[in-house]
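User: I'll paste a sequence; please echo it back and then give the predicted structure.

Assistant: Echoing your sequence first, then the prediction.
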Amino acid sequence: MTNHDLETLLHRIDGRPYPAYKDTRGTYEFGDFTLSIDKVQGDPFASPSRLSIIVPHADSELPADLFASPSRRTGTENFLALAFSRACHRASAHSGSGKSGLIAIDTPGQELLARSCVEIGDTETIVRFAVGLPANGRRIRGRSAADLLTRDLPDIIDSALYYPNLDANEIRAFAETAEDADFIRAELSSRKLVSFVADGAILPRASGIDERPMPNAVPFQSPDSLRQSFDLPNAGTVSGMAIPEGVTLIVGGGYHGKSTLLNALERGVYNHQPADGRELVIARADANKVRAEDGRSVAKVDLSPFIGQLPGGKDSTAFTTENASGSSSQAAAIIEALETGSKALLLDEDISATNLLIRDARMQQLIAPDKEPITPFVQRVRSLYEDCGVSTILVLGGSGDYFEPADLVIGLDNYIPKDLTQEAKKLCDPQTASNDLKLDPSKIALQPDQSNRSANPVSINPYTHSRGRPARSRIKTRDARSLTFGENEIDLSLIPQLVDNSQARAIGAALAYAVENRFFETHPLPEALEKTIAAANSHRLSHLAPGDLAQIRLQELAASLNRLRSLRIK
């Protein structure tokens, strides 16, 4: 069918009850693009209808070098999604009941994440978006719908997806920024670095709810002792602060930028838009921020590296609870991060359990070792690096106990970093260093395939089966803070590196995909999740499920499953 057939059909159903819109489902040729009406809303007040378009590169004239690598492809896809969103905003007009007249796409934030809303293939670009089909009450406004889909939509496509109508410098900046960031990230391991912060970066954000850069913020400037340079494919030579592997402390007075630096590093696992200020703030792809989380559930995690025999003879080697304390929740988060293969941990004193981080000498004298089951992190952090190869970056403001095991101490003064390692070491007590305790690497699952935790698939299956594919109606998200999975609500609000609503939807889709493909029945838990991530990466996100999805890491997928209260471990 053609665009003229669609226009004729919409005129014919004008004034009919709203369900007659379902007759429009199908594919329509518009000459230089193809429109598919994939899902039609049943009511003008329901979730908007889902549509998609396919634009051949021969018609859009999109240069091949803009998607010549995965990095450049993702940068270009994000630009096109933003351009499409801006065009939709200009064209959308409320006209009728409910969501009538709406045209919208999943709009990217500051991070350049792979998304299902725009997927660039070898020969064509697919764009998926939502449309509120017009109605008066619950009667179809067919002529308005015809104008929307056969006139307004082609104008949006023309202005947002056709290369001659785009800002060539802007779209190229997105592709090149993503490529440069991934180039640095790939170099970190060979240089034995955990992260890099470029000189001139803007780390503070506009506000707690606005991730854009703060106006008039102090630009970042590396200490000379930590400065390294990278020769990038596009931006040329850049210099900045390189944080090496090992134990790094970030210290300083209150409000001088300690947590701001750590927050930038935690977001550094993702690439960022040009002019974000953090385009060249780069962390290892597996860096994981861990924090205390009172009240979370824990399912059979071996906490013995940090928590020994508990009162009442409770076993900590397969620790399970519906209501974890601050120390046990953070210890579980550390072990769960190691299960996903993370080689860099990020911690902030402000959101950590104090009794897990430190226990000073006087408290150790007062409370006998056999009465305290917790081994503080300060006594494990050195061995965690030397024996297990796991680096730590820790923000501290109230304790000097970590000076002894630290390799590097960075002091923040009005957002400007200084290398204070030598000064900190002069304050060390030689006796304290002997308190370091060795970790047995065999007791910690440092790779996904080393974990022996495997899930019982029946206990996490959210479906009611009918004919064909299991229904996904019981998997829903409420922004990036909550995921409904079957009968359970997974609290995502304290997973620090989950940054986008569409990532929450992707987590729900990924867990459902793993269940449907019976991964949990045949693989250890982290390995099953790793297979799911691999499927999304190899087939694109749209392979997991329909809808708006955004790139997720193994770390956030595992963290979400580990917070599922119905999770049962064999």
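Residues 125 and 407 are 48 Å apart (CA to CA). The radius of gyration is 26 Å.
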